[in-house]
Amino acid sequence: MNVVIIGAGAAGLGIGWQLARQGATVTVLERAQYAHGAIWAAAGMIAPVGEGMEGPLAQFGQQSSRLWPDFAATLEAQSGVSIGYARKGALLVAADGDEAAHLARRAEQEEDLQLLNASQAVEREPLLTPLIAGAAFAQDEAQVDTRALGHALARALIAAGGTIIQNEAVVRIEVSSGRAVAARTPFRLHEADAFVIAAGAWSSGIDGLPPGTVPQIKPIKGEAIAYAVPSDAATLREVVWGTAVYLVPRGRRVLAGASVADVGFDTSLTKTVRAFLEERATALIPALAQWRVDEHWAGLRPASPDGLPVLGRSQVDGLFVASGQYRNGILFTPVLADVMARTVMTGALPPEHAAFDIRRFA
Ligand code: GLY
């Protein structure tokens, strides 16, 4: 089977890698550079609990979280790239009584959440301010270095026989008798047996398709910053979630994110958001006030109309979609790669994922 994938992010590369491993001939077309969109901007949390997921989204997130250790090991072995997957848990911090009560209610219902008082939380994370109303620890939460992940996925895809073509945007899908037959770029026509749109925030901007084939996928901007850990200082022990901020230790840096803004395809950096993130981060971890911010960046999350992933076979034969991951593209990478490779190979989204079926928008 000859498959063209549109978008070389976490989804496109992951799906392409799995399909190539299963014997498909895979070409990934990328409008810019591979693994430089949302995957590059993401903090890399594997965090169904931190993200407060519920219902089918929580099940999907937990399923993917369980797949992550094997996925990471196989990816590292096949790419030769270390991706820094680490399951060290996450601390969810309550700033006031309302947030503490909310955490307590969650801890009653969620097995994975262990309630802590302020001093227990500070014992677990010595850099944390003691001025908190409570906390909870989620032991199965993990993280991965997303910039290394992108590189690893690309290397693994190529090692499995796949091809990545950069700086070649798909502008149109050619449809003949209700079937997708080619992806048109400014340079040429790529014919294939199947096409997968995995283009993140750019997923619904491709011409040639009947109206409504791909629901509106909106870019939701996130700005984040990174602190350099001073050479004589210890870093955070685990991911820390506060009020409107999360902190992720990554090597000798601590990432702090992220804003959530519906401003189109604008990725400009703003002083206002940087100041907001610094204020929130230092309120949680006072030592950060003395640490240098060494990077400030922005990315675009792909959001569907109902906030859920958009997966499966579209109304156009031979055209598949994997988009709408919104805040969870990194968490979902293993499950999405597996589910979508199966979908392309069999022609149907497995029924247990019906909540995310693209046909709900038909
Ligand atoms: N998953 C974190 C974010 O989207 O900001």
What is the fold's blueprint, element by element?
Layout: E1 2-6, H1 10-21, E2 25-29, H2 38-41, E3 45-46, H3 55-79, E4 90-94, H4 97-109, E5 113-116, H5 118-124, E6 134-138, E7 142-143, H6 146-159, E8 163-165, E9 172-176, E10 179-184, E11 189-191, E12 194-197, E13 218-228, E14 239-242, E15 245-250, E16 253-257, H7 271-284, E17 292-303, E18 310-313, E19 319-323, H8 333-346
Parallel strand pairs: 1-2, 1-12, 2-8, 4-14, 12-19
Antiparallel strand pairs: 3-7, 4-6, 5-6, 9-10, 10-11, 13-16, 13-17, 14-15, 15-16, 18-19
The structure holds glycine (GLY).
Glycine binds at residues 43, 45, 222, 257-258, 301, 327.
Total DSSP helices: 8
| pLDDT < 50 stretches | none
Per DSSP E runs of 2 or more residues, the count of β-strands stands at 19
Amount of beta strand = 25-35%
**Main pleated sheet:** 8 strands, mixed
Across the major sheet, the strand order is 5-6-4-14-15-16-13-17
Which class of secondary structure composition applies to the elements?
A: alpha/beta
Radius of gyration, in angstroms, nearest whole number: 21 Å
Helix share, percent: 25-40%
Question: How does this structure look, described?
Answer:
There is one protein chain. The chain has 362 residues and is an alpha/beta fold. 28% of the residues lie in helices and 27% in strands. The protein has eight helices and 19 strands. The chain has helices at residues 10-21, 38-41, 55-79, 97-109, 118-124, 146-159, 271-284, 333-346; strands at 2-6, 25-29, 45-46, 90-94, 113-116, 134-138, 142-143, 163-165, 172-176, 179-184, 189-191, 194-197, 218-228, 239-242, 245-250, 253-257, 292-303, 310-313, 319-323. The strands form four sheets. An eight-stranded mixed β-sheet has the order 5-6-4-14-15-16-13-17. It has a six-stranded mixed β-sheet with strand order 8-2-1-12-19-18, covered by helices on one side. Strands 9-10-11 form a three-stranded antiparallel β-sheet, with no helix packed on it. Helix 1 (10-21) packs parallel to helix 6, helix 1 (10-21) packs across helix 8 (333-346) and helix 3 crosses helix 8. It is elongated. It binds glycine. The site of glycine (GLY) has 7 residues, from loops.
